[in-house]
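How a chain folds remains the central question behind the approach discussed here. For one protein, we set the task of working out the structure tokens from the amino acid sequence alone. The sequence in question and its structure tokens are set out directly beneath this paragraph.

_____
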Amino acid sequence: MGQIRVKIDQTIIEKAFEAARSGAAGRDIYADTEQRSLTLIRRGRDVGWYVKTRDFTRRLSDVAKSYKSKDALPPRAAREAAARLLTELRTSPKEREETASTRVWTWADCVTARLLLLSGNRVVARRIKIPSAETLSDVRSAFGIDRKTGTFSAAKRPSLTVLQDIPLTALNAHVLGSAIRAINGVRPREKFLAYAKSMLTWAYSNSHESGFVVPAPWWPQIEPPQPSSEEISIMQANAEKLRSRKTGFRVQHVGDLLARHEDFCAGKVAEEKISPGIRWGIWWIALTANRRGSTTLLERTNVQQSDALGAMAESG
């Protein structure tokens, strides 16, 4: 048959091996839709991975019959190998020499550079984004950075110790995944992974500074590990605790807060007095529960029932 463009998976591989076992005539060519130029070719009883371009066809390896095979490549590894080969062929000798001479950031270097970036103004989606103290604190916590010293603290994130001196180019999904799985807590794991993905993507897009050059990004495919049965029990307990607190909250609790607030403010004089803005804000949040619909209800007498501007437009 002719060339077929398809995402090569285990079904396609089994189909090719079945044709090989039966000794089918001719050849089958499957062009992968996930990786440019990667092709699985079955010719007679031979099944192999190839990188096939307009200029050349080069064999990569045998095809793994299962994902546990040690002597041949499964689809994911074949895609990585094809991307690596294409990168090498596309890069000129001068560019390879310059890349080799560029110092590659370690994980610790990358974290330091990322925090420096987040501490100043930056451009996101063509908009200037000012630094956020909350975001910086959150990122430091996720990466185990001590707020006072500004350096990594193994006591905060023990599993991240192994990452600190690893060059970004030596990092892989297995090493990063192991560090993630050892972090205590579902939410801390999710936060760390989100910040790590964002940081690696940024370093990859600024490879002229980081030296982080890989055939293709591998970190977007990493997913946070499934919570353990103990963690699921804790999540259920926390959800129930929150639900009971919400359902148990009554108007009298709001009144008690406002009464205590007024008693506290009544005894303050001069510089100790609570500003009108703070007092107004507490009352407003208490009366509206921070809901826009509640605000409209309270301000109903001030809501205009007619559109003066619209009426003027119609008369004009």
